[in-house]
Structure formats: structure tokens, C-alpha cells
Design brief:
single chain, 204 residues, alpha/beta, Spore Coat Polysaccharide Biosynthesis Protein SpsA, Chain A, two-stranded antiparallel ribbon, 7 helices, 9 strands, binds guanosine-5'-triphosphate, binds magnesium ion
Length: 204
């Protein structure tokens, strides 16, 4: 089994704050998620999009899956994505995150290789985590499954039960001083700000 060959894109949310489906976000006349798929395909052999609308992805270099344990938020998507993953670890990102940094992905892989952790994510301050732009191992699939079946949803609390390596904020800012690699577009204002702020834009 390959160690780091898979990326999972979560795209099964309700987009209630944005007011339209974030799978249809457009930046520079391109669908943002198409850009994410193409960019990730340079680094990963297998791209899994977790979506309720697989038809949006025909012809793209990815496979699509739907949530199995539904209505539990992002962890539902991480669960089925890991289940379908053909690699030991999967990189996980959301469909509304435009700034992917390969040097940080490499840094996370190195930390996992060193520490043999079951997940690798970044802290924001001391109390918050960035659950995406991180890695999760298939080895925690059963933990996630029983957690979801107990009707729990918090990625933060799930990770406390497993062997997760946490990168601290200061370290992460060496790679992304303005936190742009964790930027996610939740509202129309976020989108407008992103489109008008070329400093934050590493798309294309
Ligand atoms: N597969 C799957 N993905 C989800 C689910 N809920 C959220 N996501 C994805 O997780 C990522 C982060 O979630 P949010 O930013 O809260 O997105 P959202 O839930 O669609 O938006 P809001 O309704 O405004 O909270 C996004 O890429 C969502 O598409 C879910 O139940 N299943
Ligand atoms: Mg949400």
C-alpha cells in the first residue's frame, strides 16, 4: 500500500453561509474545485472528492464518493474518504480552500515519517485546530466510525483520542505568514476579499 498517495477533498457541506453551493465557487473564471483537483493531481495519485453531486466531476482526474454516515459534517467526509483511500495516509482539504502549499505538505509528511503519528494537523493558538490541510491515517478509521455512530462530530475531540502530531502556529507561519494556506471561503464577503486581494492568491 502506498503511504501518501491520496488526497481527499470535502465537498458535501450545505454552504449555508455562502448562500450557494461552494462546489460552484468561481475564481478567475475557473471553478475553484477544478483548480484544487488539478493542483493536487501533481502531488497525489488518487484524488477522492466526497460530494452529493458526483455529476459535477465527470472528466476530471478524480473519483467521487458520497457520505456513508450522513449529517455529521466534515468528519462524515473524512470517514468515507479514508475508507476509500488506497493509501495509508490521506491529505484532507475542503473545497473552499484555494491556497495549497506543497512545501508544507512535504513538511507534514516528514513529521509523520519521523513520529509515526496517525494524523498531523496544525494548531491555531493553543485551543484551536485547523482540521484541513492536514493528514489522517486509515488506521483511525474505526475510531472515527464508532465516534460518529455515537453521534459525535468534533474533529478536535476525535483527534484527542488518537496519536495526532500537532504543528504549532509559529512553525506553520514559517510556511504561510498570513495563514493563507488555511484560508477558507465561507461567505460572499470572504470570496470578495479573496478575489480582490492578489497577495493572498496563489491560484493558477
Ligand atoms: N462530505 C461532507 N463534507 C462536509 C459536510 N459538512 C461540511 N462538509 C465539508 O467540510 C468543509 C468545511 O465545512 P464548512 O466550511 O462548514 O462548509 P459547509 O458546511 O458547506 O458550510 P456552512 O453550511 O456555511 O457551514 C467544506 O468543504 C464542506 O463541503 C458533510 O456532512 N459531508
Ligand atoms: Mg459547516
Amino acid at each position: 500500500m502506498k503511504k501518501f498517495g491520496t488526497a481527499i477533498i470535502l465537498a458535501g457541506g450545505k454552504s449555508s453561509r455562502m448562500g450557494f453551493d461552494k462546489q460552484q465557487l468561481n475564481v478567475d473564471n475557473n471553478r475553484l474545485i477544478n483548480h484544487i483537483i488539478h493542483k493536487l493531481s501533481k502531488e497525489f495519485d488518487e484524488i477522492i472528492v466526497v460530494t452529493n453531486t458526483p455529476a459535477y466531476y465527470s472528466g476530471l482526474p478524480c473519483i467521487t464518493v458520497e457520505d456513508e454516515i450522513v449529517q455529521k459534517g466534515p468528519l462524515s467526509g473524512i470517514h468515507i474518504g479514508l475508507k476509500k483511500s488506497s493509501s495509508e495516509y490521506a491529505y484532507v482539504i475542503a473545497c473552499d480552500m484555494p491556497n495549497i502549499k506543497f512545501d508544507y505538505i512535504k513538511f507534514m509528511k516528514d513529521r509523520i515519517n519521523e513520529t509515526k503519528s496517525d494524523a498531523c494537523i496544525t494548531m491555531f493558538g493553543t485551543e484551536w485546530i485547523e482540521p484541513f490541510n492536514g493528514f489522517y491515517s486509515k488506521s483511525i478509521l474505526s475510531d472515527i466510525e464508532s465516534y460518529l455512530l455515537r453521534d459525535r462530530k468534533s474533529v478536535f475531540h476525535l483527534l484527542k483520542q488518537v496519536n495526532c502530531y500537532y504543528i504549532d502556529e509559529v512553525k506553520a507561519r514559517e510556511y504561510s505568514p498570513n495563514w493563507e494556506m488555511f484560508l477558507n471561503l465561507n461567505t460572499k464577503e470572504d470570496l470578495e476579499k479573496y478575489v480582490n486581494n492578489s497577495i493572498n492568491k496563489s491560484i493558477g
